[in-house]
Design brief:
The chain contains 9 helices and 18 strands. It has helices spanning 14-26, 87-106, 115-121, 124-134, 147-157, 191-195, 230-234, 252-265, 300-311, and strands spanning 4-8, 30-33, 42-47, 53-58, 61-64, 68-73, 111-112, 141-144, 160-163, 169-172, 175-178, 182-184, 199-203, 209-216, 219-227, 243-247, 269-276, 282-288. The protein has 3 domains: 4-109, no CATH class; 140-203, ATP-grasp fold, A domain (Dna Ligase, domain 1), CATH 3.30.1490; 207-296, ATP-grasp fold, B domain (D-amino Acid Aminotransferase, Chain A, domain 1, 2-Layer Sandwich), CATH 3.30.470.20. Helix content is 31%, strand content 30%.
Length: 317
């Protein structure tokens, strides 16, 4: 019987749905759950003095840890303690769940990707160091909380943009907004705002078009992205309706350097963003170690199949 695949993600995850469907059609056993279901609906038991001796039980399904061949770590929610606990007890229970249940999962041998590797790769300075070492072309980029240094940088490299470091979602008392890449003028480099936290500024690289490259165990699936609105030309995530996509081939040297980056970050999966300049140069922008990919209709079935291959052992980690 094929080894079981654990899919760890939130309840509504269309991207993971594609992979679960592909695995199910192959006859691969799948147990899907969200970490928010522990401990109220998900029960875990393990003997730590024995090799992978334990079970996970959820919604009538039982996964023997000895039968688990791989874990697909997507976008799980935070642990949810039992209702009725005091604030202090709830905080304690969540910490214990993270170190206990999370630790049990982390001890399993095969991941796409291991959460520790995802966490490390999400740091932009770590990404840039690895990308430079891999030989990828990276744009001039400044990390600072000093407005004077930001102004000097802008004068040195020409037009610049501001980019958030920790994701684009911004939650406040009135709801939720998104902070996309945005052009910054010299007179906007305010001492108080920049001094409040760490800021990332980058040269505004001239664009012919952009490319999203999704990598799964060394296999590249690339989509050319053409933007047809002013907002999308600055950051294509800001206006999906103004985008068109088509598959594109990744140049051999870029593929090789991308593979070196993936190895350095210990990732089997990654979503990489590039700008292709009017002269045809591929400039690397960032890698998302747990990026979305199901929005690229022309490539979705192939990416889902490649991830399924990685999880059921058809490609090597």
């Amino acid at each position: 019987m094929p080894a079981t695949v654990l899919v760890v993600t939130e309840q509504f995850d269309v991207t993971a749905d594609h992979v679960v469907t592909e695995l199910t059609e192959r006859g691969t056993p799948v147990v899907r759950f969200d970490t928010a279901e522990f401990p109220r609906r998900l029960v875990a038991t393990a003997r730590l003095d024995q090799d992978r001796c334990g079970t996970l039980r959820i919604r009538g399904l039982v996964a023997d840890l000895r039968d688990v061949g791989a874990v697909y770590y997507r976008r799980p929610s935070i642990y949810q303690p039992h209702p009725g606990l005091s604030q202090a007890d709830a905080a304690w229970a969540v910490r214990e769940a993270r170190f206990g249940f999370g630790g049990l999962l982390s001890s399993l041998p095969v991941w796409l990707n291991h959460p520790a590797n995802i966490a490390r790769a999400e740091y932009k300075p770590v990404q840039f160091a690895a990308a430079r070492a891999a030989g990828l072309t990276v744009p001039p980029t400044l990390l600072t909380n000093d407005a004077h240094e930001a102004r000097l940088f802008a004068k040195e490299v020409g037009p610049i943009v501001y980019k958030p470091l920790s994701g684009i979602a911004y939650t406040h008392e009135h709801g939720r907004d998104f902070i996309y890449t945005q052009p910054v003028q010299l007179d906007q480099l305010d001492d108080a705002a920049i001094g409040a936290t760490m800021c990332l500024f980058q040269q505004a690289v001239p664009k012919a078009f952009e490319v999203r490259v999704t990598v799964v165990d060394g296999r590249c699936f690339a989509a050319r992205i053409d933007a047809h609105s002013d907002r999308a030309r600055v950051d294509w995530r800001a206006d999906y309706d103004a985008l068109t996509y088509e598959p594109i081939k990744v140049p051999g040297d870029v593929r090789a350097k991308t593979a070196a980056l993936m190895r350095a970050l210990r990732l089997r999966f990654g979503a990489l963003d590039f700008i292709v300049t009017p002269s045809g140069e591929w400039t690397w922008l960032e890698i998302n170690p747990n990026g979305q990919w199901a929005w690229i209709d022309a490539l979705t079935p192939r990416i889902a199949s490649a991830i399924a291959d990685a999880l059921d052992g058809r490609t090597a980690p």
